[in-house]
Specification:
Blueprint (H helix, E strand, L loop, with lengths): L1 H32 L11 E6 L5 E5 L5 E2 L5 H9 L9 E3 L2 H9 L13 E3 H9 L4 H11 L5 H18 L19 E2 L1 H11 L3 H7 L3 E7 L5 E7 L11 E9 L3 E10 L2 E10 L2 H17 L1
Antiparallel strand pairs: 1-2, 1-11, 3-6, 4-5, 7-8, 9-10, 10-11
Helix pairs in contact: 2-5, 2-6, 2-7, 3-5, 4-5, 4-8, 5-6
């Protein structure tokens, strides 16, 4: 009997202990949920949304117009990908005007295209989005704009960028350049850029390009031979933040440091933008904070 009584006591103790744990868990769970704090970011503007539902998860001056730097190139790519009967393998001959443009603009980042080389539209998209090539942007604007002169074609292409912005309901967005090196009328907001990126991500080519960390592509030279073009993505989130999908960096004297970003974890995709952060490192840190927050919301 003594052994039986001891056994009963042991079982009772286990039941009581388990009950205490369950009770403690019930008490602490709401407290844990309440500890999710809104992050502080260095950027002057920020926005994050659930890409599946469109629900806003974070806002900071989300509708304040700011210079966009090379995040503009998201729209450059979007206009190209939206062309009817697009042939991504069609060839474009690199013109001297594209390399001269790089020389003439101090803030112009380059894909290092070589005059006379033939490159495909697909390759130009890689050159546009990975090293943020303003020469690649110029080539695409020249290729897909309409008109009998290069200036007319570029003007036409920028017109397509603005009409696309209007069709997507981006009411606080305007472009006056194909690459973000504007003349004072190139602006958007964190919310608008996020909506633009979300739309661009519907194109499989865009998704493939922006998540590429580095690539080597073959260009056809004037003599009919081949030349390797190697590009590395300027987006530091790739390889440093689990689930990163891309999308695009930007910088400039007025724009400071910008980043449009997206990631997927556990079947949930968050997408967002930071504008006018204080450094390359801080724009990346800002994006990581906002995605961490977005996944927990």
């Amino acid at each position: 009997m003594k052994n039986g009584i001891k056994g009963i006591r042991r079982v009772s103790a286990v039941v009581v202990t388990a009950g205490a744990v369950l009770t403690a868990g019930a008490v602490t769970a709401p407290a844990q949920a309440a500890t999710l704090k809104t992050p502080t970011i260095a950027a002057k503007g920020g926005f994050v949304m659930n890409n599946g539902t469109g629900k806003s998860l974070f806002t900071k001056a989300a509708d304040t117009r700011r210079s966009t730097g090379s995040t503009t190139k998201i729209m450059t790519a979007r206009v190209v990908l939206g062309q009817p009967n697009l042939n991504l393998d069609s060839k474009v001959t690199v013109q001297k005007a594209y390399s001269d443009y790089i020389v003439d603009n101090n803030w112009a980042s380059s894909a290092r295209l070589i005059v006379g080389d033939k490159v495909t539209v697909r390759q130009l998209l890689y050159g546009l989005m990975l090293p943020s090539g303003c020469d690649a942007a110029y080539a695409l604007a020249d290729k897909f704009g309409s008109g009998s002169t290069r200036d007319a074609r570029v003007k036409s292409f920028i017109g397509k960028m603005n009409s696309t912005a209007k069709s997507l309901g981006l009411t606080n967005t305007h472009f006056d350049s194909f690459d973000g090196i504007g003349k004072g009328a190139n602006y958007s907001t964190p919310r608008d850029l996020t909506k633009l990126a979300s739309n661009a991500m519907k194109y499989s080519t865009f998704r493939t390009v922006v998540k590429t960390k580095s690539t080597t592509q073959k260009a056809t030279t004037k003599s009919g031979g081949y030349r390797n073009m190697s590009w590395t993505n300027t987006n530091a989130l790739l390889g440093s933040y689990s689930g990163t999908l891309g999308i695009k960096t930007g910088s400039g004297p007025e724009a400071k440091y910008c980043l449009v970003f997206a990631a997927t974890r556990g079947g949930k995709t968050v997408i967002g933008t930071v504008l006018a952060s204080s450094s390359v490192e801080n724009r990346t840190a800002d994006a990581k904070k906002l995605m961490d927050y977005g996944f927990k919301k």
